User: Fold this.
Amino acid sequence: MAKILIIDDEEDLRQGLGIILSDLEGYEVVLAENGRVGVELARSEMPDLILCDIRMPVLDGFGVLAELQQDKATAAIPFIFLTARKDRNTTRTGMGLGADDYITKPFERQELVAAIQARLNKLEIITSHYEEKLESLRGNILMALPHELRTPLASIVGYGDLLVQNTGDFSSEEISEYAAAIVMAGERLHHLLENYIIFAQLELMANDVVHHDLLRQTYQAQPDEIIRVVVQGKTAVNQRHVQLHLQAGSVTLPMSNDYFLKIIEELLDNACKFSPDDSTIEIYTAVSQNRFSLKVENSGRGMTPEQIRNIGLYMQFERRIYEQQGSGMGLVIVKRLVELHGGDISFASVPDEVTAVIITIPL
Assistant:
């Protein structure tokens, strides 16, 4: 049964609520006599829902909610205010801090239980949704990784074995061709392993406040120049027509050189991979309202709304129809990098016509 933390300085009300919710409704109940004790119990007991008075000594209800919202471990706990005050300013303050509901004293038992159950049901739905996404993530990684490892390894071993077993039977041109195939497979394998390592590092940073803050303290100057260098240096891009519309100038980004390069490389790789060879890729940058924006646009397959929603689950869309290389992790890493730096990423796509990936990062 769900655990409920009740924070109220009125002992009779606190004890009465405890009896109603534990003895009559079957909830596990934890009681706190003031806001400071309530914060400590919220962190140690990790309740499923918190009922909290507003006017209390030591620390009032607004202070309790503000402290819990600053802690990732407690920020998502449903929070309901119990108060004799219900005016617009009070409600606006509480909702602005992240409260889920208000119940005005005096209240009926049915009203209280209904409000609690509604919030717990919503929490259960959200939890179930994320568990489904996590299970899908596990399945997609388990399906993609073995294939993506075997394919380049098979090329390396196969061509290497041919060269070892038939050294004198091949011309210099054939040896050069097989060696080039081995190098290409090795580069593909290196890229795959690099992406999985970067993903693991980013997930660790996302849950480490210190490293998360340090991430935003590294700066990279002149992204427009970096984009030009990447476009010129990537063999796959040089074989395609790329139009640059770079208007960011000498802006400085709160992002390391390596991470910004990773974003550009992955977006360009995807644009090349999923568009016709004779099509044009367009790259735009700009600065507006103290935010840097980057857009990479290409024609080709595009994505459906459902496929866009599933970015983050490491899915290779329509692989049975379109053969492709890669684990599907590139866009996921881009999305994660942008979000860790306080930015946003969006996708605009018309299937079989055009796709645009737009990122914005605060300066």
